[in-house]
Design goal:
The complex is a heterodimer of chains A (about 325) and B (about 270). Helices cover about 75% and strands about 0% of the residues of chain A. Chain A has about 325 residues and is mostly helical. Chain A has a single domain, classed as ABC transporter involved in vitamin B12 uptake, BtuC (Orthogonal Bundle), CATH 1.10.3470. The longest helix of chain A is centred in the N-terminal third of the chain and has 37 residues. By secondary structure, chain B is α/β, with parallel strands linked by helices. Chain B has two domains: about 220 residues, Rossmann fold (3-Layer(aba) Sandwich), CATH 3.40.50; about 40 residues, no CATH class. Chain B is about 35% helix and about 30% strand. Chain B has ten helices and twelve strands. In chain B, a hairpin with a 2-residue loop joins strand 4 and strand 5. Chain B is globular. Chain B starts with a strand and ends with a helix. The chains are: A mainly alpha (about 325), B alpha/beta (about 270). Chains A and B meet through helix 10 and helix 11 of A and helix 2 and strand 6 of B.
Chain lengths: ~325, ~270
């Protein structure tokens, strides 16, 4: 599909505005617009809008943008279309940090305890990957170190689950791991925003270096781009942005993998141009998936991570099938 | 105008010493051919000259200043390097691949500058790629991709160009075109060094040759001085016929000399 650049961005902008409006207006407690217009119900409606739907909408944007951007940056750096943020160990270790907090939950309390635990986990996981992969890490050692950290963090989460004091505690952990944006407040939005902004800025600054890496590390170096410097910015950026996202929303799969895939042909396959596009695409996809979660007529609310995987996996298979076709 | 000078360069790849005190000089207007058998250290020499591999001992200077003192950006604008690998990891259009050569000139948050577009179009034209400019580079044949990579290096517009086997995998016509193009660049004042395996191509097009063997330079000078039966035997372990035609010298390798048989042939 060849559309003019302006037309394309206008479409993206219109979709974004529509999704944000829908995300603010629609939810399990019904459409807000008539309530806001009705004097007697305006107060309650305003509370719902500001304290429930606004944080949820903002978080969907922040988390989705982080995942899309992180996926695009990792795919560009590793020159592998199968890379996603979970690959470098950030996701599972952030989840582990959050699980540890939940496990000892009663004593710590407060809305910040869980995300801070997740962030600490993300930092610890990333530090381990960097230490394991060494200073002169090749893409392969980086991925292998990520796989090792993922496996270890996963094992510790399983250990925590099997030693859970009560089935309810275990269930709470499992539900959190599935990923959700429900019941988050503006204070959690305030907590993740600086991390996502700084991490996202680092990742967006990689554009030209990732373009140069298309031709291999030696050619990139001959063009003035040091792979080591790019790697540090990449790991710090993914750690901050994706680590903070997982810390507050749990694990939301497939966004970081599918979004760059979907958008790559639209930017002429250039890894640098894909970064900003994937941030926007990730935010839109997560907003849309969260709307599905809220509006699906199920007894208890679906988990966002479940919906992204349910939508993402078949879609990914479809992409693969199309890639195989002549 | 830029001059690259290597003096007493020692280079190591892991535990192995690949260059043992190599001297070389690439000056404006010169097309320096680097020849020698496999694993002689030719590519390593080019990487050291390009600043991609710091020498373990000895110095490399660009216009009299040690290469290490140049910022990566400044160095990238002055020395274009073309590796053997010809990697292109995404199906990017040929024109975009060639434009990657201009990345060395971009600074800060700014995008492409006014000189970028003409430089890219000129590089495409010189490498004869106008017809292929909109095709994804990953769909091209090996030989076509080699020319794309050459155009990418030309697009840098650097006063020094180091090309590692740019003619490998090309048909004879394209080999001749590439060597003629490199010679034209040299005539325009670019300092060019090229690794070549075809000795006749090297003899005909290069202004000077460096013959390497086991990490050392064993002969250097004008092509006719470097290419002798004795140097080919010592450097390449071959017996060859050297001749002259109206168009220039030629080299026909006749047989490989095995170490034991070599002693017999020499006597």
């Amino acid at each position: 599909m060849r559309l003019h650049r302006t037309t394309r961005w206008a479409l993206v902008g219109a979709t974004g505005i529509a999704l944000v409006a829908a995300s603010m207006a629609a939810g399990p407690s019904g459409w807000l617009v008539p309530d806001l217009l009705d004097g007697s119900r305006r107060e309650v409606a305003a509370i719902v809008a500001l304290e429930i739907r606004l944080p949820r909408t903002l978080l969907a944007i922040l988390v989705g943008a982080s995942l899309g951007l992180g996926g695009a940056a990792l795919q560009g750096y590793l020159r592998n279309p199968l890379a996603e943020p979970a690959l470098v160990g950030v996701g599972p270790s952030a989840a582990l940090g959050a699980v540890v907090v939940m496990y000892h939950g009663a004593g710590l309390g407060g809305p910040w305890a869980l995300p801070l635990g997740g962030l600490a986990g993300a930092v610890a996981g990333l530090a381990t990957v960097v230490a394991l992969a060494g200073r002169a890490a090749s893409p392969l050692t980086l991925v292998l170190a990520g796989v090792a950290v993922n496996a270890f963090a996963g094992a510790l989460i399983s250990l925590a689950l099997s030693l859970a004091p009560s089935p309810f505690a275990a269930l709470e952990v499992v539900f959190w791991l599935l990923g959700s944006l429900a019941d988050r407040g503006l204070d959690q939005v305030a907590l993740v925003t600086p991390f996502v902004v700084i991490g996202g800025g680092l990742l967006l600054s990689l554009g030209r270096g990732l373009d140069a890496l298309t031709l291999g590390e030696a050619t990139a170096a001959s063009l003035g781009f040091s792979t080591a410097a790019l790697r540090w910015r990449l790991l710090a950026g993914v750690g901050l942005a994706v680590g903070a996202s997982v810390a507050v929303a749990g694990t939301i799969g497939f966004v970081g993998l599918v979004v760059p895939h979907l958008l790559r042909p639209l930017v002429g396959h250039r890894p640098g141009a894909l970064l900003a596009a994937s941030a926007v695409g990730g935010a839109l996809l997560t907003l849309a998936a969260d709307l599905v979660v809220r509006l699906a007529p199920t007894a208890s609310e679906l988990k966002l991570g479940v919906v992204t995987a349910l939508l993402g996996a078949p879609f990914f298979l479809h992409l693969l099938a199309r890639m195989r076709a002549p | 105008m830029s001059t690259l000078v290597a003096t007493g360069v020692v280079a190591r790849l892991g535990p192995r010493t690949v260059l043992h005190g190599v001297d070389a000089r690439v000056a404006p207007g010169e097309l320096l051919g680097v020849i020698g058998p496999n694993a002689a250290g030719k590519s390593t020499l080019l990487r050291v000259l390009a600043g991609l591999l710091p020498p373990g001992a000895g110095t490399v200077t660009l216009d009299g200043r040690p290469l290490a003192d140049w910022s990566p950006r400044e160095r990238a604008r002055r020395i274009a390097w073309l590796g053997q690998e010809r990697e292109c990891h995404w199906p990017i259009a040929v024109r975009e691949v060639v434009a990657l050569g201009r990345l060395a000139h971009h600074r800060g948050l700014g995008g492409s500058g006014p000189e970028d577009h003409p430089a890219v179009e000129r590089a495409l034209a010189r490498a004869g790629l106008e017809q292929l400019a909109d095709r994804p580079a990953s769909e091209l044949s090996g030989g076509e991709r080699a020319r794309v990579m050459l155009a990418r290096a030309l697009a840098v517009g650097a006063p020094a160009l180091l090309a590692d086997e740019p003619t490998a995998g090309l048909d004879p016509a394209h080999q001749l075109e590439v060597m003629a193009l490199l010679r034209t660049l040299a005539d325009e004042g670019v300092a060019v060094a090229v690794v070549v395996h075809d000795l006749t191509l090297a003899a005909r097009h290069c202004t000077g040759l460096v013959l390497m063997h086991a990490g050392r330079v064993i002969a250097a000078g004008r092509p006719r001085e470097v290419l002798t039966e004795a140097s080919l035997r010592a450097g390449f372990r071959i017996r060859a016929r050297l001749g002259e035609t109206a168009e220039g010298p030629y080299v026909v390798p006749l047989e490989a000399i095995t170490p034991s048989a070599g002693d017999g042939a020499a006597s």
